[in-house]
Structure formats: C-alpha cells, structure tokens
C-alpha cells in the first residue's frame, strides 16, 4: 500500500518538464559598445532650427513690422513692390511660386516637377530641392529680393525657406498666412464600441 502511494506521488513529478532559458552573460564593455552603434537623432536640414536673433539685435533691425515698413527700401525697391515667394505646404506636396507685387504668377514649381513621386513629394528634402531650383531660376529672371508667405502645415515649411535662401534669394520677411477656422464644421459622430 505504501509503495502504491509512493508511485502515485512520484508519477506527476516525472511528467513535469523544467522550462527555462539562459543567455550568455554580457560584460559592461559589450553593452557600451552596443550603445555606440545606435544612430543619433536626426536634426533635420542643416541650419533649419537655428535662428540668430543676437545678430539682428546688434544690427538694430526691427524684428516686427511698423507703420513705416511698407515704405522701407530694399535694394532700391519699396517693400510694397517686392516680389512674393508663396510657399504652399501640405502633408503630401509643397508648391512654391513667385509672384509680382500685384499677385500675377511669374514662376511656379512643385515637388512632382523635380522628380519626386508619391509619398516622397511630402518630405522636407523635396521641399528644399524644389525651393532651391525655383530660387536659381528666379535669380536668372531678375528676382533678387523677395518676401516669403508660407501657407499650410507640413514637413516642408522651414525646408522650403532654407532652399530659397540657399538658392541665393535675399529674404526680407516671412509671413505665415495659414488659414485658421474659428468656427469649424461639426465633427463626425463618435464611433460606438
């Protein structure tokens, strides 16, 4: 009787499997070496996040427009008569155009015209390339000093301005003309879960 009891107690113990995993121990030097292989965060386009306000303050420039700003001369041209570089930014594309002071379009360029297709049109690299090519063509046509108007939200906002600057255009002012709806349409009904 005692042996039968002993066999019933031992039987479940034999059927239990021992499951565990082990890994090779790593030294501290190996862990440090792995951290060095991780790339640093992307800072975007070079100079995109740098604004040198100290140099503007030292030059005693006006950071904001005044009543006399419309009559200021830039390269012998009043501010009101300067050409305007319009940058239209969406999540899918960036369109850059240059108009005269009356609003007549003189040149237009989009990311698709520069060879970017599909989702690549919405990147900041595409916006900078498009703005750079438009700026070089604008200088050939005689536009040297412009004011910039940016409209829309997307990845190419700052990159397009940087591309215009890299192309050789002298940017006098930057204006954000993104439309804001203070009374938006009624949202869709909430999903039932």
TrEMBL record:
Question: Mind telling me what this protein is named?
Answer: (diamondback moth) hypothetical protein
Gene Ontology terms: biological process: translation
- Top-level taxon of the source organism: Eukaryota
Please verify whether the record's keywords include Ribosomal protein: yes
* Pfam families, alphabetized: Ribosomal_S11
What organism does the UniProt record list as the source? Plutella xylostella
Keywords from UniProt, A to Z, are: Ribonucleoprotein, Ribosomal protein
| Gene3D superfamilies (alphabetical) | Ribosomal protein S11
Q: Which GO terms describe its molecular function?
A: structural constituent of ribosome
Which Gene Ontology terms of cellular component type are present?
ribonucleoprotein complex; ribosome
Q: Which family does it belong to?
A: Belongs to the universal ribosomal protein uS11 family.
